[in-house]
Structures are given as C-alpha cells and as structure tokens.
Amino acid sequence: MIVKIVNTSNNALPAYETEASAGMDLRAFIENPVTLAPMSRALIPTGLFIEIPDGYEGQVRPRSGLAAKHGVTVLNAPGTIDADYRGEIKVILVNLSETPFVINSGERIAQIIFARCEQAEWQLVEELSETERGAGGFGHTGKK
Questions:
Q1: Spatial contact of 109 and 73, defined as CB atoms under 8 Å apart
Q2: What pTM, to 2 d.p., does this model score?
Q3: Distance, CA of 96 to CA of 62 (rounded, Å)
Q4: Which of 7, 27, 70, 87 is most buried, judging by how many CB atoms fall within 10 Å of its CB?
Q5: pLDDT value, residue 18
Q6: 94 pairs with which residues across the strands?
C-alpha cells in the first residue's frame, strides 16, 4: 500500500523498526517542550500530513513504553484518521501518572497503524436473528 506523505517537520519519516512491526512511531514536532501535568492532556503536532487510500484508515495508538514507564497514553485510543482527512496528524496525549512528563520535539509519542475498513449500509428490519448470547453484554460472558 502506498501512502502519500508531506513532512514539514525536521524528523525522519515514520518507519517500521522491525520486519514484523505493525506500527510506525510518530514523533512530536513542537517549538518548545510541553509539560504534561498529572491528569492533564495536550494536542501534540507531528508535522505530518498524509493521503490514505480509500478503503483504509490510519489508527493512532499509544506506545507501550510511554504508558508502562511514564503513564502517558493516547487519550482517544485508537484515534482514527479517515482516508479523506488532509490536515496535520496531531496526537492527544494524557498523563495518567502522578508526576509531570516533559515532551520534547522529536520524541516518539505514538504509533500509526493502517487497516482496511469498509462502509456499512443499513438494512432496516423488524427483528434480528437469535443467538445463544442474545442481548447479554458488559461482562455477560465472563465467569459466574
């Protein structure tokens, strides 16, 4: 799959770090460091603009290292980038830890994964087919 990209940052293009990597790291592109206070959030620009082919989406996901070591994660994970969006990729980060976290330009802040997606068409019906599960949800299939 080819994804067109404009890079207005001074960071290298996102790349797969290993042969079997699912995602590519996104890096912050900011003029000054941003300090995320505990329980605060910030919209962090990347300087990247992309053109995703129709039938695909970009998913912005947390980096496990940031979450495990610092309590910093992507707030709306996964964030969806639609194929027709042409604006700058920005990442909503939240600090769930008890200590401030400083984000510097060039720092790896999230990862992007591309996935196929389809648009659904609604079929209005009077009732749905029966299943063993039925309407059970929210822990319904868990231990009793």
A1: no
A2: 0.89
A3: 13
A4: 27
A5: 95
A6: 41, 73
Tell which residue, 45, 46, 57, 48, has the closest CA to residue 6.
48
Task: Report how far apart, in Å, the C-alpha atoms of 12 and of each of 3, 48, 71 are.
Answer: 16, 10, 26
What pLDDT sits at residue 66? 96
Residue 24 class from Cβ within 10 Å (0-12 exposed, 13-18 middle, 19+ buried)?
Answer: middle
Contact (CB, 8 A) for 109 and 79: no
**Cα angle value 80/7/21 (rounded, 5°):** 55
| Alpha-helical segments (H) within the chain | 64-70
- Give the residues across from 27 on adjacent strands: 108
- Is residue 53 reached through a cis peptide bond, with omega within 30 degrees of 0 on the bond before it? no
Q: What are the domain boundaries of the chain?
A: 22-116
pLDDT at residue number 101: 98
Phi/psi of residue 90, nearest 5 degrees: -130, 150
Q: How far apart are the first and last CA of the chain?
A: 45
Cα dihedral 36, 71, 30, 88, rounded to 10, equals -120
